[in-house]
Write a structure and sequence with these properties.
With 238 residues, this protein is of the alpha/beta class. The protein contains ten helices and eight strands. The strands form two sheets. It has a six-stranded parallel sheet with strand order 5-4-1-6-7-8, with helices on both faces.
Amino acid sequence: MRYKAVIFDMDGTILDTVDDLTVSVNYAMGRCGHRNDFTRKDGFRMFGSGAHTALQRALAMEAGIDDSAELRRIGTPGFMTVAGIDEAEVARIEDVFRPHYLEHSMDRTGPYDGILDLLRALRSKGFKTAVVSNKPDPAVVKLAGDCFENLFDEAAGEQAGIRRKPAPDMVVSVLRRFGITPREALYVGDSEVDVETAVNTGMDCVCVSWGFRPRDFLETLHPFAIIDRPEDLLPLLD
């Protein structure tokens, strides 16, 4: 068996989190005197690269930037800051967002259909499982425990001193604890950040079509495979 472990992204891959994330963005933005009427559709465009980048994108949208490709560039190398947006203001909003989201992260959130069955099947076949997310680490640990019946061997989120995805650091740390090489694990995600993370780590990446990015965009990323249902992952592991 080539693969010994499967590492999952969280938002848009195993959990439908976009409503709770968007509510917390609206709360934090409103408390800080900014636009606070973002929709679920807006949430899909904001998230995928962590809370700080999401709030940069929210402020960019408030300033009139609406092009999806331009929004996706925010938070990537060369676009870590946004012209006209004060990073101190982003940090101020983030300080409101993080505790609100941690408290309300389960109000409207739940696993996508078929994910629990997939995780049970993976465990029954002897695969190690992990979730690695750019969400704050306390939220990742809480959601992994609350939603997934202890079906993950490891759960890791954004932490100080560890570079977030698409840097390989978080994933490499999990692989070391598993005692396996990158080629022995499969990465599953729903966005360009996940494909870049897999490439930077030396792993194969499978993208899911039900997440934060549409299938036609995922096809331009050329992942190892794109799946439309959780159970479609299992044949790829044989």
